[in-house]
Amino acid sequence: MGNKKNDKPENKGGENLKKFTEDADLKSNLGRIKHKIMVLSGKGGVGKSTVAANIAVAIALEGKKVGILDTDFHGPSIPTLLNLNDARPTSDGKSILPVNFTDDIKVMSIGFMLPNHDDAVIWRGPMKMNVIKQLLTEVNWGDLDYLVIDFPPGTGDEPLSVAQLIPGSDGAIIVTTPQDLSINDVKKCINFCRQVNVPVLGVVENMSGLVCPHCKNVIDIFKKGGGEAMAAQMGVPFLGRIPIEPMIVEASDAGKPFVYHYSKTEAAKAFSKAVEPILHIPERETSKSGPDENLPAKKDGNLRIAVPVAQGRLSAHFGHCEEFALFDVDTEAKEILAETRLAAPPHEPGLLPVWLAERQTDVILAGGMGQRAQGLFTDKGIKVCIGASADEPQKVVTAYLNGELILGDNICDH
Fold it and tell me: Do 268 and 313 fall into the same domain?
């Protein structure tokens, strides 16, 4: 009996140690990768893997070191798209080494682990989660500028697992086709990203018209513009249209990256254009995390109100302010207790909601803010008031406390 009583604490301690070690390995491994980009779609058959592979190659063509991680258990396409079906990862004795496609592109896929190309993966959720964690923790990517992660379609276990394991991702590229059947599912994918705090970098409309190989005219067989209209409706960037070209099919089946071998085509140019915003994502300042030491502690029952400031007044464009004025207020006495000014962090997708939440912000008073940003703040439990005038921050906060703040139109609703 005595031994049995001691078993449980010992096992629990072992589990905690194992979890700590895995998390430390995960943080250490991914810490060598500057940017993590997820490629998702709410529906299968939209060419998501083709987009992921060509975007990765397009980034590498700009002189960046890139990794491609294929997490599609039931349809791993990356090995075929890169002519790596017979490749197998190796080991250095401590970790898994990804397959080198070129000197600047490393690849890891679930498909590499299957004994035969035609084997079906029949695994339940926990098994998939463990394998994904193993790929992220044990694969030695080395120093990368970008890791492009190709997700399975939908919003199930695999996307959720990766989103949870990479909370610091730069965001997701959402792939759709123009027709309503695809767009309706992709809207769910965007909402999924918002719920798990993954910024949406933009939408790519794939299969946007067929380029005739003879006359080079474009035939809109799946309609046109549905992805762009949906992006505008959901308040996310639109990255461009990729037309259907017969050479894309030929190149994909032959394992030749289309964007490299057919760089002068309209489709290849569209891929390169879609990559431009990704290349300008600023690097995170990892040394700054958690609340500032000089920020006063917030007392129970009080609120902390954030006001974006530019040139001494409330900034009309929330994401481009110079600094934030943080006010601790007593709502019953309707008075300001303390004010702290903090320099604004780098303007990059999804950072401000996390940054302000870490500083215990309850309310934001802003002139204008995009729909996507509003959704991210709401997910963090932060109330957003839009349409405040460009006045001195103290006056804006005082008007809010007295119920006299007049809110106009959202001047940067994008």
Answer: no
- Residue (of 185, 181, 183, 92) closest to 142 by Cα position: 92
Q: How far, in Å, CA of 220 to CA of 195, rounded?
A: 34
Location of structure tokens 């949906």: 230
d(CA 103, CA 100): 7
CA distance 165 to 156: 14
Token digits of residue 346 = 């780098």
pTM of the model: 0.62
* Model pLDDT for residues 280-309, shown as the tens digit of each residue: 887 654 333 344 445 556 666 689 999 999
| pLDDT tens track for 338-352 | 888 888 887 666 788
Q: Kindly provide the residue ranges of all beta strands, DSSP E only, lying in 112-237, ordered along the sequence.
A: 144-150, 171-176, 200-211, 218-219
What does the DSSP 8-state code read for residue 68?
E
Largest CA distance in the chain: 84
- The count of structural domains within the chain is 2
Assess if residue 343 is contained within a domain.
Answer: yes
pLDDT of residue 395: 93
Give the DSSP per-residue string, 349-390: TTHHHHHHHHTT--EEEES---HHHHHHHHHTT-EEEE---S
* Helix (H) or strand (E) run with residue 38 in it: strand 33-40
The per-residue b/e assignment along 306-345, b for 16 or more CB within 10 angstroms, e otherwise, is bbbbbeebbbbbbbebebbbbbbbeeeeeebeebeebebb
For residue 331, CA distances in Å to 303, 339, 398, 401 come to 7, 15, 10, 6
Which CATH number characterizes residue 370's domain?
A: 3.30.420.130
Look at residues 161, 268, 207 and name the one whose alpha carbon lies nearest to residue 43.
Answer: 207
pLDDT, one tens digit per residue, over 60-116 is 999 999 999 998 777 788 998 999 988 898 988 888 999 999 999 999 998 887 766
Residue 387 buriedness (CB in 10 A; 0-12 / 13-18 / 19+): middle
